[in-house]
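S1.2 Input.
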Amino acid sequence: MECVRQIVDSNLLDKIQLPLNMRGRKVEIIIMPVDEVSTRKKKPIDNLIGILQHNANPELMHLEKGAWAKAMEAKHADC
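S1.3 Output.
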């Protein structure tokens, strides 16, 4: 993707509304074509079940039922 970068004095940018803390200083301008920028959308996150399914171990699935409750009992047994 082609772009143009240039450092200029912010006083030259009278058409752009800059925050007060950027006025009167050198700023960097990066110009990129809009059509290329708009195509850089993030890929939607896949279903988590589908992502993690390749890590599943069917032999251990029966241990998952009640695992959290058992872990909390073990953690707080001394209380």
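S1.4 Remarks. The chain has a mean pLDDT of 81.
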